[in-house]
Amino acid sequence: xxxxxxxxxxxxxxxxxxLHEAAPFTGSRFEHLxxxxxxxxxxxxxxxDDLIAVQTLSVRIPAQAALDLLEGDLAVRVSKLLSRVPLxxxxxxxxxxxxxxxxxxxTAWHLLRxxxxxxWVTAGKLLARKRPRLLPVYDQVVxxxxxxxxxxxxxxxxxxxxxxxxxxxxxxxxxxxNTILLKCPGRA
Length: 188
Description:
Elements: H1 3-14, H2 48-55, H3 63-71, H4 73-82, H5 96-99, H6 104-113, H7 119-130, H8 140-146, H9 152-183
């Protein structure tokens, strides 16, 4: 896929330049709904806004698990782990130890994944909401493209670092271009 095609796909996903009767994909609100899950006041706490945000990506957290994430022991355990996961870095900048087996992020993913009704996809989406620059969304669609690498996070980090971070720079340029088009939908 070319950069132009990727930019076009992003514009469509986020609703830039769509006719009034067409709506952007609901997932386009995932990262920024209610100010984002990584804003300092809530970065280490799962909130009701986070539970709604993951629904924009077509998953639901069962009521009992949601209550435990908001008010129960699971909330305390997840919060403690999130407080140890870097907040303001991109995956490409992370140390391998931030993403490897046994890291707080990996432990949080396992903790969430093992809750009744949550599973691997929802666990990953919830963590991506809390650390959007560090942890990507990985679901069945992404798995169809990337397969099942031994360590998704470490493999993606490595791919982003190849050739002096070329892929990372290209993705950031696409993001910047998309942001400009969303702010000024009449621009091409």
